[in-house]
Amino acid sequence: MEIKPSMFIGVHGGNIISFGSGQPDLPPPENVFSCLSNYREFKYGLIAGETKLRDTLAKQNPGFTKDNFVITNGASEALDLVLRVVAKPGEKVLLHKPYYYSYKPLIEMNNLKAEFVETEKGKIIYEDFEEKVHGCSAVLINSPCNPTGRIQDISTLKKIEKITKDLDIPLISDEVYKELIYERDNYFLSGPHVVTVNSFSKTFSMCGHRVGYFFSNDLNIVKKVIELKTHSSMNTSTVGQEMAYQALISPKDYIEKQRKIWQQRRDFIYKRMLEMNFDVWKPEGAFYIFPKIDNPKKFVLDMFQKHDVITYLGEWFGDNERVRFSYALSEEKIEEGLNRVKKYLEK
Predict the structure, then answer these.
(1) 186: helix, coil or strand?
(2) Contact between 160 and 132 (Cβ < 8 Å)
(3) For residue 2, what pLDDT is reported?
(4) What domain range includes position 96?
(5) Among 110, 150, 156, which Cα is nearest to 133's?
(6) Whole-model pTM?
(7) Overall domain count for the chain
(8) 143/93 same-domain check
């Protein structure tokens, strides 16, 4: 039986414990809902996004203006549109293993080729990167990483900045988890052709709103994406953007409070997995952990069909030996889910 992500997305309820989807169970900021009672703007909006939302994002990202930003239908549309304009059919895009499971399909659906950099315990092997980046038309970095929760070393990121600048190629930085780092502050990749992708889904627990964005100093990329978006999806939901704006101006301690909860859960699940003798890397950000498991396909299918536990197959992320667990659920559910896993493994 072939196992696909679509089997699990949106599945919940009953006795099911889902370590699957990376969907925060924590609530959005309260004032996100404040606009709904009197919101009446349902006409077409600006393709680039509502002005006050882009203005506010620019103020929170010094050195940029609203004209550097495009608001998209989640980070996924941002990645899709950017990939379409930074490389031509047949050209290569360099990304590191393990990778978010949508990267490879997005690259291939745009008639591009994926080139893979090897990692050691989730960290980019720069020598391999340096060898493979020549001949690629763009680079895609994800730190903190989905599915590993690992962050790339600052020294490595600086080398990647330099070599992509020297080669004059776009560097796409998927930073949807940048506010969820436990070990250090986020290192912001910068350069003439850096494209930073982000979303309101993870930081503000607004997955279903489908509001993401990207920004770049390369206005040529921005203009090409706006032209393409005009004919693909037009404007992103205006009410969704208004709610995203309310999230941005919410109390500043919201993010820090959320991060502390994620870190507590990280510590809890990592400790339990070590006690269960898993071969596992310590997550440094996001809310995923990626243990090595014998016969991953059988494990994922058995846990779902026989034990009502959802996990994601590492094969989807480019690693055939591991399984991804999301810990975007309460400690009580994490404990119960891992107890079921332990009983299964003991048998």
Answers:
(1) coil
(2) no
(3) 78
(4) 30-248
(5) 156
(6) 0.95
(7) 2
(8) yes
Exposure letters 103-112 (e unless 16+ CB within 10 A, then b): bbebbeebeb
Going 216 to 221 to 227 to 230, the CA torsion angle's sign is negative
Note whether 86 and 107 are within 8 A (CB): no
**Strands (E) located in 186-263:** 194-199, 212-216
Q: State the number of CA atoms in the 13 A half-sphere of 263 facing the CB.
A: 13
Q: Which residue has the tokens 């992708």?
A: 197
Residues 140-191 have pLDDT tens digits of 999 999 999 999 999 999 999 999 999 999 999 999 999 999 999 999 999 9
Yes or no: say if 295 and 3 are a contact pair by the CB < 8 Å rule. Answer: no
13 phi and psi angles, rounded to 5 deg? 95, 170
CA separation, residue 308 to residues 20, 259, 273 (Å) = 12, 28, 19
SS3 at position 71: strand
- Burial of 167 by CB count in 10 Å (0-12 exposed, 13-18 middle, 19+ buried)? middle
Type of residue at 274: L
Q: How far apart are the first and last CA of the chain?
A: 22
pLDDT tens, 75-112? 999 999 999 999 999 999 999 999 999 999 999 999 99
**One domain, residues 160 and 15:** no
Cα angle for residues 274, 179, 211 (degrees, 5° grid): 115
3-state secondary structure of 37: helix
Same domain as 274, residue 242: no
The continuous run of DSSP H or E covering 171 comes out as: strand 171-174
Q: Are 344 and 331 contacting, i.e. CB atoms less than 8 angstroms apart?
A: no
